[in-house]
Design a protein that fits this description.
six-stranded mixed β-sheet, alpha/beta, Rossmann fold, 2 domains, about 35% helix, three-stranded antiparallel β-sheet
Length: about 260
Amino acid sequence: MPVDPSNSGAPVVALKGVGKTFANGVVALERLDLDVRPGEFVSLLGPSGCGKSTALRIVAGLSEPTSGTVEWLEAEAARAAGPRRIGFVFQEPTLMPWATVAANVRLPLKLAGLEPSAQARVDAALARVGLSGFAQSYPRELSGGMKMRTSIARALVTEPKLLLMDEPFAALDEITRFRLNNDLLALWQSLGKTVVFVTHSVFESVYLSQRIVVMTSRPGRVFTELSIDAPYPRDERFRTSADYVGHCRQVSEALTRAIGTMEGP
């Protein structure tokens, strides 16, 4: 069952007063405070260019903050155990076109020196995303949705505790996007991962999330947080319910205020 974020203890990771200024002078983030709690599904929602992806890359260690700190649960133990187990799904599938689906999914294990156990892990990851029959296919033979499933399998193959997803379904058609939303929730519930999901879609954030962090326009920081208390599993009945519409209206209004202010709620 999904974890109740309000009762899940210390954050897995916390951003404290994080700022990010790029070399060209663009201030992407300013005084960003964000807690991510164990087992929750949290979405970062905001307009394009507000720093959502930058925040995600800082959590992943792909970018360093200019100011502020990134704090991890049991930091000393994590350092002793080596790199943190983080899976990252980018907006584009970023697959190697010359490699099979299985080889693309195996790549993180190869880079981590885990080849001896690779086959079983690859098979399990492909089964989780419904691609067991496509292990020997090449990216050019896959639909957009199947490419993204491959990317998700690649992120899951190292068995990460924290899954970071940067607008993974933004380029897909609505039917495929709805289907992958459902599949992602099923994966999250069955595997018990902590998920941070970046999106600029109010509707997607409400459907997926336990908690939505609404960000201001650049420089990005937290404007407000909203809880989506609808029970899981969620399906088409929820997507067409008055409860869903009400949450969407509330989140949309908060987003409109966030875009129009520089001072906060």
